[in-house]
UniProtKB/TrEMBL annotation:
GO CC terms: cytoplasm
Gene that this polypeptide is encoded by: Lrrc14b
Signal peptide (from-to): none
Lineage: Eukaryota, Metazoa, Chordata, Craniata, Vertebrata
Statement: the UniProt record of this protein carries the keyword Metal-binding: no
Protein name as catalogued: Leucine-rich repeat-containing protein 14B
Gene3D superfamilies: Ribonuclease Inhibitor (3.80.10.10)
Keyword NADP belongs to the record: no
Keywords, alphabetical: Leucine-rich repeat, Repeat
Family membership noted in the UniProt record: Belongs to the PRAME family. LRRC14 subfamily.
Length: 519
């Protein structure tokens, strides 16, 4: 559907479409038109015009989310376009804003906010080349270092040294860009562009490097911390982290797989867990917690009861929760506030059906996202599931890949899902009857693609027809066989793969050495 453009926006498009003319004429443009021209340039991917607009930015703040979001002149939100041409022009324009020698008193810019940029799977920009979060981290760090070097060597206007601009960004650090980010953070004091880390994600880093950079990134400003792949953070390291660093504004915490393993708990570990719970309780802003692929059997209450603020997002997928854990969640004050819940990897119908539905009932008035992948939901459970989901009128997203459901059961479920007014995204499993007879669940990675693809396509068509006939073309239905799209993993998958091969090789070498010693 084409989005309406105001006459002002159409005029802005016409103005910036001739890059040479637009660049020459910028000095005559009224200051309040710069945001309009910026969005028009971004839509048309006019990199040179974007660069010059930012280089001559006349306003106090530059907020990417607001500039590219829905506006009166053009309702379409462009913040999900991570176009490489546009973003590089934007960041180099920011560097040149500092170096541009027009009178310092005209330089009013104080805050640049890059946090509103959203990384998504499908790009609509013409160039089709994206600049993800990792690349934005890398480029901004390099530009800051270039500025420091230039200011040290060149004869600059004295006013240049008085420029101080806070650049709010979501940093993404791996082994490959670690050195340049560390150097940029170390030289923050002497750079006019001050990197202010609002969210921090770390993959493929040693613990020593992670602890060093997280302190450099100024934890007092941090709102979101994601420690995800190949950072070997275990419970004792988490305790050290929370004891040694204060995160007063932290709202969201993601911990790597296997941070907790209660199967080998000692009395010391129990004390450690209590301390971690208390430390998280001191984070008065914490409302999102992801602890997937840890073993937390019987310990959810110990971890979550000290929290003073109710959680809005909880991911405890594949955490081996027992009935006591589910009962705590269902009766806790978090239940009424949960907007996103992931309980994947738990046999819900077998272990705690009534307690789960109690939890669902308590969160139904606010729940927006529910993920129940590999939960052994079968045809016989569909009616009960429909009953549980019926009050969830605000549900935007429902993911239930990996459950042994037949084509018929899926059609029945889809007919119901059409009635949820806010629903936008459904991730459903390959029907059980598309797999060979005797397949066991959860299906292993080697067998997950061995199904009748023609039959699946036919069923998927029928499911989409159900949506179409109910006038629900707004609902996207798909089957991501290997999990939902993760922009960060997509951007760094080569590094991630290399790291995994290296780890496997090291493990193999250790095993061979041990075996040789035994021989």
């Amino acid at each position: 559907r084409a989005t309406m453009k105001s006459l002002r926006f159409l005029s802005a498009e016409a103005f910036v479409s001739n890059a040479e003319f637009a660049r020459k004429s910028l000095s005559a443009v009224a200051h309040n038109l710069f945001p309009l021209l910026f969005k028009a340039s971004y839509l048309l991917e006019q990199g040179e015009v974007i660069h010059d607009l930012v280089e001559n930015w006349p306003l106090v703040d530059f907020n990417m989310g607001k500039l590219l979001g829905a506006t009166v002149d053009y309702q379409e939100d462009l913040s999900h376009r991570t176009c490489s041409v546009c973003l590089e022009s934007c960041l180099t324009g920011l560097r040149d804003y500092v170096l541009n020698n027009f009178s310092p008193y005209m330089k009013r810019l104080k805050v640049v906010d890059l946090t509103g940029i959203k990384d998504v799977e499908v790009q609509f920009c013409e160039c089709k080349k994206t600049m993800g979060r990792w690349a934005r981290t890398q480029l901004l760090s390099k530009l800051c270092l270039e500025l420091v070097v230039y200011l040290q060597q060149a004869q600059c206007n004295p006013g240049t040294f008085e420029i101080s601009i806070d650049v709010l960004i979501d940093l993404f650090v791996t082994e490959r860009n670690y050195e340049v980010v560390v150097e940029a953070l170390l030289k923050k004091c002497s750079c006019p562009l001050k990197i202010c880390c609002v969210a921090f994600r770390s993959d493929n880093l040693t613990l020593q490097k992670f602890f060093y950079i997280i302190k450099l990134a100024d934890p007092s400003l941090l709102r979101k911390l994601e420690i995800v792949h190949n950072v070997r953070l275990e419970m004792e390291h988490l305790e050290i982290l929370l004891n040694s660093i204060h995160f007063p504004l932290l709202m969201s915490l993601t911990l790597p797989a296997r941070t907790f393993n209660v199967q080998r708990f000692t009395a010391t570990d129990e004390r450690m867990l209590t301390n971690i719970g208390e430390k998280m309780g001191e984070m008065t802003q914490l409302t999102e917690l992801c602890m997937s692929f840890s073993i937390l059997t019987g310990r959810i209450q110990k971890l979550l009861s000290p929290l003073k603020t109710p959680l809005k997002m909880l991911d405890v997928s594949n955490c081996s929760l027992n009935h006591a854990d589910m009962a705590y969640l269902a009766n806790s004050f978090h239940a009424n506030h949960l907007e996103a819940l992931d309980l994947s990897g738990h046999d819900i119908p077998e272990l705690y059906p009534s307690t789960f539905f109690k939890l669902l009932s308590h969160s139904s008035s606010v729940l927006r996202s529910l993920t129940l992948e590999d939960c052994n939901i079968q045809d016989t459970h569909v009616n009960m599931l429909i009953l549980g989901l019926s009050p969830c009128q605000k549900l935007h997203e429902f993911k239930f890949v990996g459950n042994p459901l037949s084509s018929q059961a899926l059609k029945h479920l889809f007919t119901f899902l059409c009635e949820l007014p806010m629903l936008k995204n459904v991730e459903f499993p390959v029907p059980r009857d598309c797999y060979p007879i005797g397949i066991t669940y959860p299906i292993d990675d080697a067998s997950v693609c061995r199904f009748d693809h023609q039959k699946y396509e036919s069923v998927a068509e029928e499911l989409n027809l159900i949506l179409l006939q109910a006038n629900r073309e707004d609902v996207k239905a798909s089957t991501p066989l290997f999990g939902s799209y993760d922009a960060a993993v997509q951007e760094t998958n080569n590094e991630l793969g290399a790291y995994l091969i290296k780890s496997f090789k090291e493990t193999l070498e250790k095993f061979t050495t041990s075996f040789n010693k035994m021989s």
